[in-house]
Amino acid sequence: MLRLPRFKYLRPKTAREAARMAAELGPRAMFVAGGTDLFPKLKRRQFDVDALIGLDFLSHEIRNGSKECVIGAGATLAAATGDAHLNEWLTGYAEAAGLVSSPPLRNAGTVGGNLCVDTRCNYYDMTYEWRKAAGFCMKKDGDICLVAPSSPRCWAVTSSDTAPVAIALDGVVTLTGPDGDRELPVSSLYRDDGIDYMAKQPNEVVTSLTLPADPKTSTAYVKLRRRGSIDFPIAGAAVAMQLDGDEVISCRIVLSAVASHPLEATAAEAFLKGKRVNDDTIRETAEIAAKSAKPLDNADLSHFWRKRMVRVVVERSLALAATRTPGSTVKLSGRYPE
C-alpha cells in the first residue's frame, strides 16, 4: 500500500494569507484544494513537500449573470456539471467538468484545481520504485526526457479537461498573490513546457474563473480516453462558435492532451471563419486542426492512433457546437455521434 509522506497541513483563512505562506515556505510547500491529483502523486513520491497549504476558504459559489459567469475556484466539478445555467449557456464547460475522472472525484475536485492540474507522462506517473528501475526522468529526479532522450525539454502533456473550453471562451482567472490580485486570460495561464507548465507565480492562488456568457456562442467538448470514466484525456477538443444561419462568424478550437499546454488550432479557426458549415467544411477543418497535434508515446494507447483520432474529436466537437447554436440552419449527415 502506498502511503502519504509526513507533512504539515496549514489552514489559512484567506487567499492573501495562503499566498504569503507559500512565499515564505518556498518550493517545499504546495497548495491543496480537492487533492484528487495531488495526494496520489504524493504517495508515488512525485512531489517532495514539508507542508500543504489548504484552500478550504475558496468560494464555492457560481454566480450567473446576463453577460458572464463567475465560478469560485473552490466550486466542485460536480457542482459545475450540475449547474443549470452553465448547462444552458456554457454547455461545453459543463460537459468538460462532467468528463473529469469519476463521480466521487468530481465531488472533491475543484474548478481551480482542474485548471492547475499537473502535466502527465507514462514515465512520470508511476511509483518511486518503478521510476527508479526505469531510470528517473527529467520531470522528477532525472536529467533526460525518456520519451524524447535527445530533447532538452520535458514533453509531459496537459491533462486538464476544463482548460481548453475556458480558453475557447476567452475565460479569465483571478490570481491572488502576497501583495494583491491580478487577472489573467486563461490562454496566458500555461507554458509549453512539461515541467514549468504554469505561467502564474508559484505563490499565487487561483481564486475564480470568469467565463463570458454570450447567448450567440455555442460550445462543445469531446474527450477521448480508454474507458468511459476515471481516465485522463488522451485527446480532446473544445469548440466555441458563433453562426449566422450556417455561416461561421467566429470559431475557437482548442485541443487537450496533445501538447504540454492546451493547444489552439489557429490555422483551422482561420480556415473555418466565413465558411458555411456542412460535412465537407467540418472534415477539412478537422484535418487542419489535427496537423498541429504532435502526440508522443508518453500517454495511453498508441500515439499514431491518437494523432488520427484528433481529427475525429474535432469533427464531433464542431458538429455539436454548430447544431447547438441558436438560430442555426446547419444540416449535417448525422455521422457525428455524441
**Oligomeric form:** single chain
Calculate the terminal CA-CA distance, rounded to whole Å.
Answer: 39 Å
Low-confidence stretches: none
Biggest β-sheet description: 5 strands, antiparallel
The gist of it:
This protein is an alpha+beta fold and 338 residues long. It has helices at residues 15-25, 38-43, 77-82, 84-89, 91-98, 103-106, 111-115, 128-134, 162-168, 266-272, 279-291, 303-324, and strands at residues 8-10, 29-32, 51-54, 62-64, 68-72, 172-177, 180-185, 205-212, 217-224, 235-244, 247-256, 263-264.
Account of the protein in words:
There is one protein chain. With 338 residues, the chain is α+β, with helices and mostly antiparallel strands. It is built from twelve helices and twelve strands. It has helices at 15-25, 38-43, 77-82, 84-89, 91-98, 103-106, 111-115, 128-134, 162-168, 266-272, 279-291, 303-324; strands at residues 8-10, 29-32, 51-54, 62-64, 68-72, 172-177, 180-185, 205-212, 217-224, 235-244, 247-256, 263-264. A five-stranded antiparallel sheet has the order 4-5-8-6-7. Strand 6 and strand 7 (180-185) form a beta hairpin. The radius of gyration is 20 Å and the shape is globular.
List descriptors.
single chain, 338 residues, alpha+beta, 4-stranded antiparallel sheet, 12 helices, 30% helix, 20% strand
Strands, helices and their partners?
Elements: E1 8-10, H1 15-25, E2 29-32, H2 38-43, E3 51-54, E4 62-64, E5 68-72, H3 77-82, H4 84-89, H5 91-98, H6 103-106, H7 111-115, H8 128-134, H9 162-168, E6 172-177, E7 180-185, E8 205-212, E9 217-224, E10 235-244, E11 247-256, E12 263-264, H10 266-272, H11 279-291, H12 303-324
Parallel strand pairs: 1-3, 2-3
Antiparallel strand pairs: 4-5, 5-8, 6-7, 6-8, 9-10, 10-11, 11-12
